[in-house]
């Protein structure tokens, strides 16, 4: 199998933010290679996804225009490479992670609790086993952590949940394990759908979570209690209009994948759709907002 390496150079002060943006845009973990003058941030995607991923990366970098003004916009480079063991390299950085009050995200290859810290486990832990493969979502990215934390507070037992852009399935599985009655996990990428299905089976929630290919709400003919979207600014805004129509009265729209400097655009855009603000979380330059359809809508 052939892969495409999408990379760019950026100032050291922005490398972590750029890595976060590339991870979200390409849907895979990003790697940062340090150098004296500038860091190189890279993602690897299947060769057939190169053009689409490159366009998404370029759009994400464009959002950093003001921050990059002093240094100039970096050139996004694409190179085809043979299959290599790069995927194994990032696994050493994916270790069990506690998120929020009860959630524990752990890779399928690691024990819980860790042998060196048996006291880390709690009686009410909700443990999610995950092998993200080539799909975005390990819990380590700030947007995923923010969504998981918000999900704990927003989800009601017995809710119908739609997770748009499900990636690895981490949010869908968390919703199922936290008490949702039914979860529809949706992604436009067939590779992500395959990874999500594997993770759903690994966590034994296939009776609750259904995984489908798609990227819209309007074609689902559902009235969900909760719509979750951890994607990018423009898709989040586009989906807000559909959520405003599809959600049951009182239902919630939980969205992330947006950098904090875009908060005015995000807030104004979603308010125009008729949804009401119900909470904002932020971490490491990223936002997660919860919106609510009014009960009498």
What layout of secondary structure does this protein have?
Blueprint: E1 2-10, H1 15-26, E2 31-33, E3 39-46, H2 50-62, H3 65-68, E4 77-82, H4 86-91, E5 97-99, E6 103-107, E7 126-130, H5 142-154, E8 160-164, H6 170-177, E9 182-187, H7 190-202, E10 209-213, E11 226-230, H8 233-246, E12 252-259, H9 263-272, E13 276-283, E14 286-292
Parallel strand pairs: 6-7, 8-9, 8-11, 9-10, 11-12
Antiparallel strand pairs: 1-3, 1-4, 2-3, 5-6, 12-14, 13-14
How would you portray this structure in words?
With 297 residues, the protein is an alpha/beta fold. 31% of the residues lie in helices and 28% in strands. It has two domains: 2-86, 2-Layer Sandwich (Alpha-Beta Plaits), CATH 3.30.70; 140-292, Vaccinia Virus protein VP39 (Rossmann fold), CATH 3.40.50.150. The chain contains nine helices and 14 strands. Strands 10-9-8-11-12-14-13 form a seven-stranded mixed sheet, sandwiched between helices.
For the record, the CATH class of the largest domain is: Alpha Beta
Question: Number of helix segments?
Answer: 9
Average pLDDT reading: 85
How many distinct domains? 2
Main sheet: strand order: 10-9-8-11-12-14-13
Q: What is the overall shape?
A: globular
Here the CATH topology of the largest domain equals: Rossmann fold
Report how far the terminal alpha carbons are from each other: 50 Å
The quaternary organization reads as: single chain
Rg from Cα = 19 Å
SSE ordering: EHEEHHEHEEEHEHEHEEHEHEE
User: What is the CATH superfamily label of the largest domain?
Assistant: Vaccinia Virus protein VP39
Q: What is the makeup of the main sheet?
A: 7 strands, mixed
Number of strands: 14
Helix content: 25-40%
Structural class: alpha/beta
């Amino acid at each position: 199998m052939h892969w495409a390496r999408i990379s760019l150079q950026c100032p050291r002060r922005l490398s972590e933010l750029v890595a976060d943006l590339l991870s979200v845009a390409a849907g895979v973990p990003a790697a940062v290679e340090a150098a004296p003058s500038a860091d190189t941030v890279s993602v690897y995607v299947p060769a057939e996804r190169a053009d689409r991923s490159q366009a998404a990366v370029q759009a994400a970098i464009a959002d950093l225009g003001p921050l990059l003004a002093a240094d100039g916009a970096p050139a996004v480079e694409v190179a085809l490479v043979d299959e290599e063991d790069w995927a194994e390299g990032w696994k050493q950085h994916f270790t069990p992670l506690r998120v929020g009050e009860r959630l524990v995200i752990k890779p399928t290859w690691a024990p819980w609790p860790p042998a060196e810290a048996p006291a880390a486990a709690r009686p009410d832990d909700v443990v999610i086993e995950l092998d993200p493969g080539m799909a975005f979502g390990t819990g380590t990215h700030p947007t995923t952590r923010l969504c998981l934390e918000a999900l704990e507070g927003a989800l009601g037992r017995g809710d119908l949940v739609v997770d748009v852009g499900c990636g690895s399935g981490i949010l869908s599985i968390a919703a199922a394990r936290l008490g949702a009655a039914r979860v529809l996990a949706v992604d436009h990428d067939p590779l992500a759908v395959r990874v999500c299905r594997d993770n759903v089976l690994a966590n034994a929630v296939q009776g609750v979570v259904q995984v489908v290919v798609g990227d819209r709400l309007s074609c689902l003919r559902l009235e969900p209690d909760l719509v979750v979207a951890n994607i990018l600014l423009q898709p989040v805004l586009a989906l807000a209009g559909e959520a405003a129509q599809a959600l049951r009265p009182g239902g919630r729209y939980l969205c992330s994948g947006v950098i904090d400097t875009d908060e005015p655009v995000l807030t104004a855009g979603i308010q125009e759709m008729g949804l009401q603000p119900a909470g904002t979380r932020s971490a490491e330059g990223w936002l997660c907002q919860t919106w609510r359809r009014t009960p009498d809508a």
